[in-house]
Amino acid sequence: MPELPEVEVTRRGLAPRLSGRVISGVAVREPRLRWPVPRDVLALAGRTVRAIRRRGKYLLLDCGDGHLILHLGMSGSLRVLPPETPPGKHDHFDLLLGDRLLRLRDPRRFGAVLWTAGAVAAHPLLAHLGIEPLSRALTPARLHALTRGNRIAIKNFLMDGRRIVGVGNIYASESLFRSGINPRKRAGKISQQEAKKLVAAIKATLQAAIRAGGSTLRDFAGADGAAGYAQQRHYVYDRAGKNCRRCKTAIRKLLQGQRSTYFCPTCQK
Ligand SMILES: [Zn+2]
To answer: CB–CB of 92/109 below 8 Å?
Structure first.
């Protein structure tokens, strides 16, 4: 499933190729995505893509008088292709921009293509999203304040997108390892010092994943569309029973909120 770093890598790949271009056509081959693709998108021709931004895992194509909202869901990918490229079975949506097209491939159809003419930050899908982890808004003081009085485990706290958006299962486990915090610790018990380590770890973990994906950016326009899904070397994620890379203790796995958490019982007291 595309996580925040993959979506950011996608944004960085699309922005220089699409920004400033005029939409010349729209094709919706399958409107039954996570939500039905609204008819409004068929009338996008003539608008200019001014900028491509990201909020959480949503890509926002600023068209001046509104935004095209794209989400990759479980299995979606976006590619920039020559306009004559024949569509495959799962290529549900194309945005034609003169000599190139933006194509959404989504075999499981949990992705989204939506349009909003209103203030995009107030869109129902975006209005309740938490702090952007890579923005300056996420500071140790802010995280410390947000966690006060909170009894849920810090791992589950980090994964709640209404508080901090886009820290998925992999990045929550990895960030907690990097900051030496036990994933079961109550969020409200995190000290100021731990909040400082944790914020630095969250940003470093996400940025490392973006950098790993960035190495595939030059191939972004390629037909295989494998952008962003770079192999990464995890400290704990998916390493149950294997030796901790720091202390050689066996990595443990536990279930928290129906999700697997991986941690080192020695490094994360
Ligand atoms: Zn360890």
So the answer is: yes
Burial group, residue 252, by CB count within 10 angstroms (0-12, 13-18, 19+): middle
174 classed as catalytic: no
Strand partners, 202: none
Are the CB atoms for 62 and 47 separated by under 8 Å? no
Name the catalytic one among 34, 57, 178, 197: 57
Residue 236 CA, ligand 1 centroid: distance in Å: 9
> 245 is written with which tokens?
């890379």
Q: How many helices (H) and strands (E) does the chain have?
A: 5, 10
Q: Examine the residue annotation and report whether 259 is marked as an active-site residue of this protein.
A: yes
Q: Which residues surround ligand 1, an ion (CB under 5 A)?
A: 244, 246-247, 249, 264, 266-267
Burial class, 10, CB count within 10 angstroms (exposed 0-12 / middle 13-18 / buried 19+): buried
In the reported structure, the alpha carbon of residue 249 is separated from the centroid of ligand 1 by a whole-number distance in angstroms of 5
Backbone angles phi, psi at 150, to 5 degrees: -95, 125
Residue 2 bears catalytic tag:
yes
Contacts of 36 (CB under 8 A, 6+ apart): none
> Along the 269 residues of the chain, how does pLDDT read in single tens digits?
788 988 999 999 999 999 999 999 999 999 999 999 999 999 999 999 999 999 999 999 999 999 999 999 988 999 999 999 999 999 999 999 999 999 999 999 999 999 999 899 999 999 999 999 999 999 999 999 999 999 999 999 999 999 999 999 999 999 999 999 999 999 999 999 999 999 999 999 999 988 887 655 444 443 344 444 445 689 999 999 999 999 999 999 999 989 999 999 999 99
Which residue from 19, 61, 9 is spatially nearest to 212, judged by alpha carbons? 9
265 is catalytic: no
